[in-house]
Each structure stands twice: as structure tokens, then as C-alpha cells.
Amino acid sequence: MKVSVVIPAFAAEATLERALESLVLQSYPDWEAIIVSDDGVDYQQFLSGKGIADQRLHFGTTGQTHSGCHAARNAGFPLVSGDFVTQLDADDTLAPDRFETLLPLAARYGAAADNLLMVDEVTDKAISTTFKDLSDPVFLALTEFMSLNAPLVPLIRRDHMLPRVPGVEFSEDAIANIQLIDRIGQLPVTVTSSYFYHLRSGSVANSEKSSTLFETGYSDYINRLETGDGFGLSAENRIIACGGLNAKRALNRAFMKAQSREPELSFQEFVGRQ
User: Fold this and answer.
1) Where are the domains of the chain?
2) CA 225 – CA 238 distance, rounded (Å)
3) Per the count of CB atoms within 10 A, which of 13, 46, 86, 88 is most buried?
4) If residue 51 lies in a helix (H) or strand (E), which one and from where to where?
């Protein structure tokens, strides 16, 4: 069972080697990585110049510059040959046992995720996990997923893999996971953390403009659920997703007010106070 990993690459020269090292260290060796350039950089040449050559590395491009993670993933998906598909951002890393742990669950249930760990990019210190107090594996229905305020990165059986929604960049992973749970019913999540999400200031999710961008995104998605195609969800899950996004928008608005009083306040710190 081969695992295909799609890696969008935009200005990724400083971190891509680290991400690939975490792949090379996987205890499960049957994987491939599709590195999709979204900045015009020839990453095959870049890695070759650093002495990095692995037959499991493949390369693609969006043919554009800064078209977004959703566009880069969609450019990479047609290139995959694996039985399972997952994502890895070029500035994130994986635990060595990630594929070995998630594959049996994903094979049985259609997809599986871990209790993602957020790490400070500068200090390399752990900040928090998606679930603060998880002692047993959980199976997330859509209602439980919508209550989360941190990401999940699933390993998905290929027959449940959908392309990312065109034009959806902010929270594009959340929309993809909503669609996934709509298809499989419940998403199993392990107690252990095997995806390490490196938080850095200035990224889309952690910039001064992020709150405004998410406000616009949430409003657009809510409108689409209420009056548009609903992202293809069932009628019941449209209602659940809409309620969850309304709650996220309200939390984001509360954060914007708090941040106006405390400019250095991060969203993670704000959520931790709730």
C-alpha cells in the first residue's frame, strides 16, 4: 500500500529539506512525494544541488506564482500513484511512525488522522495539540469536528480523495475535511501526535491580516452552504457545517476585538483563555 504525499512549495527553500527528512525517516518505506512548485522554482534542481536525490521524489508545478495551497494540491493530485493520499506543508514535519500507525485505520475506515501537535517555528517548543486531553482514540462525526479550533491532517484512502474546492484558500483544509467526514461518516483520530505543524509569524494563518481574511472566508462559506452548492454535502451536514462555521466566525470576531486591545495576542493564546 503506497502512500502519496503532496507538498505545495512556495518560497520553501529554507524548510523543504527538513520536511523531506521526516519522510525519509518513516518506518513505513512505501511512499512517494509530489513536490508542487507554486513560485516558479525548480525544486528538483534545488534539491539536486544539495545532494538530495530519491527515486520516491516527484515534481510538478502550478505554472503560476502564489496561486495558493489549494491550487498546488490540485496540481499534485493527478500525479499521485499511491493507494492513500495525504498532505505535508513544506514547513511542517512528520513523526517516523506516522504512516505505519495511520495506515491500518485509514484502510479500514477510509481515512485517519492524528492528534496534531503545533510547534513554535523559532523555539521548536510544543505549543498545543488539537485535543488537549485525549486518552483514547476518538471517532469524529461532523458536529465534533466543527467544534475544533486547530487543524487535522488525515491520511485518506484514495477512493475517498476529492480535489480541493477551486477558489477556497483560507481554511481550505477544513473544508476538505468537512467533505471527507460527509463521505465516510466519522474520522478516527489517534491519541498520539505524528504531524508537527510549525507555527510561524507572517504565514497566512498567523499574520496581522489573518483575522480579516478568515472573516471573509467564513462569510463566503456560510453563504455557499445556505444558498449555493453546499460543497456537495448532505442536507443534514450542510446545517451542521453552517452552524460550526458561524461559531468559528463569532470566535474570530471576538479574537479581533481582543487583539485590538492586545496587538501581540496570538489566536492560540486567545483560544487557550476560552
Assistant:
1) 3-200, 205-273
2) 6
3) 86
4) none
From 183, 248, 187, 184, select the one nearest 219 (Cα to Cα).
248
What is the tens place of the pLDDT at every residue in 3-19? 999 999 999 999 999 99
Give the integer Cα–Cα distance in Å for 232 and 225: 9
CA–CA separation, 225 and 223 (whole Å): 5
Q: Which has the closest alpha carbon to 69: 176, 146, 219, 145?
A: 176
Q: Does residue 59 sit in helix, strand or coil? A: strand
- Cell 485590538 belongs to residue: 260
Q: What is the mean pLDDT of the chain?
A: 94
Q: How many C-beta atoms lie closer than 10 Å to residue 244's C-beta?
A: 21
CA distance 219 to 226: 11
Element (H, E) at 20: helix 16-24
CA distances from 66 to 12, 38, 144 (A): 12, 6, 33
CATH number for the domain running over 3-200: 3.90.550.10
**pLDDT mean values, one per 10 residues, the chain (274 residues):** 98 97 98 98 97 96 96 98 98 98 98 97 93 94 95 98 93 96 98 95 60 92 97 98 97 93 85 79
Joined grid coordinates for residue 218: 467564513
The x, y and z cell numbers of residue 51, run together, are: 545532494
CA-wise closest residue to 130 among 100, 153, 157, 109: 153
Alpha helix (H) residue ranges in 110-234: 142-146, 172-184, 210-227
